[in-house]
Input
Amino acid sequence: MYETVIYEGGVYKADEMRELVEDLGGFILQEHKMQLEIHMIMAVPIEDLDVVEEKAEELLGEIKRVPLAGTEIAVVGMSLARHHMPHPVCDIAEYLRRHGARTNVIGLARGYGRELAQLRPREKRLLEEHDLVVFVVGNFRDCIEKYKLPLIRRIERVPVVVVGGPEEIDADDVTYIGGVGRKPYRFRKGREITKLDEIADTVSRLIEERRKELAEDPPAVPPMLVKDRLTRELPLRDRDVVLQLDGVRVHRPYRKWSDRLARVEIHDRKLEEVARIRPSEIRGHTLIKIKPKSEVEV
Output
């Protein structure tokens, strides 16, 4: 397993950090140079993390853990209407990005109203393509408990966090965070930032639990390695390949790219042998889910 961290230090001798990570079998996921400073997002083998930290100290840099790096999270408003897509949706999505996640803000086609609220099969499949889903609901406890939660419970394959206005709701089977609800302004005050921290901590905890589940029968090849090979062998930019816990999403249409993706070699095997490649529910994208080791090893 890998730990995703950020190295912050000077451009001078940054090559030494890059070479060390690659020698340890890790990956440089992203690099950002800002004048004389460099920020590198790296995936490092957990057992070698102390070696990387010692090197960072030697280079007068700093290693920071990024708990949500390598994940794709959906932040869902119940509709695209202005009363259902308030500022908290954007604030939550942005705050999770600061913790390393790639977030997609999604509004349901028929999530508004009580009797009208729906979660269509395609929307369910789309949300379950992510590593975790955050639902941002409204202020009315009765509406949340009787009408919104039955829809939300249909998401079964990935963890779900529900964020709403009431401080508490009657639902022990749902991870719920209250005190948010609909607000017509950005989160700027201290107690509001504290609430965003609570949401990020809860999401991080669920993602860590998911990582431990995957570690029992991990992907046949690390998603970071898949991304590295795709960007090296195909005309793909770093931002065209989004990491997930058990795969990647490629910003290319399935019909035109599936054969090229399938032929990419990883550890003397073609990608189609170690992963399932299929069209994503996001139009113009291809989803690659890596098979667990128990299915691939002979």
